Amino acid sequence: MIISKGSTFDGNILEGGGVFLIDKPLTWTSFDVVNKLRNLIRKSFNVKKVKVGHAGTLDPLASGLLIVCMGKKTKDIESYQGLPKIYTGTMTFGATTPTYDSESEITEISDYQPIALEALEKVMQDFLGEQLQVPPIYSAVKIGGTSSYHLARRGVEVTLSPRKVTIYRFECLHWDDPILNFLVECSKGTYIRSLAHDLGKQMKSGAYLSSLRREQIGEYDVKYAWTMDELIYHFTNM
Fold first, then answer.
1. Is 59 a catalytic residue?
2. Catalytic residue among 10, 23, 59, 101
3. What pLDDT digit, counting tens, does each position of 164-202 carry?
4. How far apart are CA 223 and CA 50, in angstroms?
5. What does DSSP say about strands 2-3 and 18-24: parallel, antiparallel, or unpaired?
């Protein structure tokens, strides 16, 4: 059962399971959303345990569609994870950060020269198709059972292997030098932070991801997703 914005549901989801479409707010971790939903279900239906898990992490500084499965539907998490994703956001050129986004402080500022839109779009097209991408070291990729970002934050030198990803679309929505508003459609496992970092290297200017929103996962669109406030209100008033 897909539980989109405004859907009616009751305790029957405890038996059959449910798949919630949620618009993750900025600063919330994906686990924050999972934990909040789990607590809402336990309290509303007076149960001690319920399985809840998300189908694809969004960073705290990203917003947008998060698919959260509960009960028997948690067995379908992998199938949702495998769906292509569509993101919109901004990349800022002329500087880089350790995390490849705005979560960390700028550590390098290049001798930035203005970039022509035509030149930028030409390089963006080079990223289309199947390719090998190296994840950010500040990521949830596991190294010996420990998340890479935990090691990186402890000052451990981290080397991650490239992974095969596919970029189906990479479009400029608006260019206001040095800020690119973009849309990208990509496969499972693609890091948009790495895409921003790699594009900056190709443009010989540096770049980092300054905002990100997940618009779609497969056929599921964020416009049909619950905000957390709406979901909390619905559970509270059931």
1. yes
2. 59
3. 999 999 999 999 999 999 999 999 999 999 999 999 999
4. 27
5. parallel
